[in-house]
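Appendix B, Record 12. Input sequence as logged:
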Amino acid sequence: MIPEGTSLAGHWMALDGRKGDLLDRCEQYARWTVPSIFPHEDNARTDNPEESEKGNVAIGARLVNHLSHRIVDTMFPNDKPFFAVTLTPEAKRRFFAEASDEEKQALDAGLIEAENAAMRNLNLTSYRPVAVAAVSLQIVTGNALIYRLPDNNRVVYSIRDYCATREISGKLREVILRDCKLYGALDEKVREQLNANAKSRKYQNDSPVELYTYYWHEGGKWHMRQAVDEIELDEAKTSYKDEDFPCLVLTWNLGRGDHYGRGLVEDYAVSFHNIDVMTEAMIDLIGVAADIKFLVNDTSSFDVDAWNSAKRGEYLPGKEGDITVPQFKFAVEVQFIGEAIAKLERELAQAFLLSSAGVRDAERVTAEEIRFFAREIESAFGGLYSRLALDWQRKEAEYQLAQIDFNSYLPNGEQAFETTVVTGLESLSREGKLDALRLAVMDLQMLDAVPQEIRAAFNPLKFATFIFRNRGVSAEDFLFTQDEMTANRNAQLAEEERLMQKQGEVQVASKAASGK
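Logged structural output:
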């Protein structure tokens, strides 16, 4: 909470001052990789920014762009929802105990239709560029914030334009955003309030102003206040449920007790720095070698001016040795530096998964390819993918489901449901369930390899249940219960008896007809 008597502008300055050298470090990390991601503040807050200062790490931009696009491709696939909606275990037990087969099928169809409606509402076509920008910021600076506008569009904030505080567990406690606007772009009511409360400043349409939006969590809800410069806006106060909170504050790697995360580039800052320094040194050496000059014997009568103005193939007086070319003696050093740079680049490529096959650049990629890359992300970055699923995908999914009339898709009206992100190591889509079932069916074939005399001692139903359970497949969804098997067996016996009786009647009728 803001201390009593402190303005939002003052609270911003206090929280921004606690960042220390974080902004300077992020500018350096961006200079090594993608400078436009986090330019210098003077360049970021101008209408006509100059070209950002670049480092000498040629591979940096490629590393960040490759990894950010691959992560987004895995998190938000184009052809299927990235989340699934299921009934809670209690609601599922209650519903399946009373529902018929038709009602169960209608429920599954309604859940799938609700997922597709939420995905249409999200509109991945416009969301993916935002997601790529957010992931790139996390890789380089360790932090990013996605802000949900009232029209359902998204904008991305860098660590320069927002401050946050967290509890020791990492849970957000407060967030404050800073936006630079022009006075003429504000609402008319806001302009009137500014003019009424401004003491010495006179606002013009092109006057720059600072808009501060402050959120804090209290009483199980998020609350909001806004201020322009030092003047707080009374009409902007409101509250949000947790699922409606418009800010997604994301981090790459958040340490215990930290308010801000650390990016992947920081983890390999030494390698980036070494490549930067060695590349600059090699460029200097190559520049010296490329600056070709000639030496003329000062005791010779050789006419340099005549040499320079002579045509090709023309004869001039002189002798060998009048002109010499200095030898560049640092070729070995240049080669050594180039090999050292190449070694560091290979290490960075491996760290950023650039050398991995990953996901193909194609219109259709298999679920196994995406799962392969998800496993690499998990193993390389220590659970990053799972953390993003919790902090990012689930919150987006819950928000999108809240925007549609979810219960209208359910056959029995209102039900208790839960959202599951279908990504990560176990599965990335509904195809994961099919894969588990496919493997379980393949495992059932192991029984064919058992000798006949031993197979007779096996209980097939128990064997199938064991296989399904260990493959993560719900056997209840496919196997008959004992009562159902008994009923089916009785029905089969009754049908066989009916067929035998009918066959006997046909034989009697045939004999009677032949007797005539």
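The longest helix spans residues 482-515.
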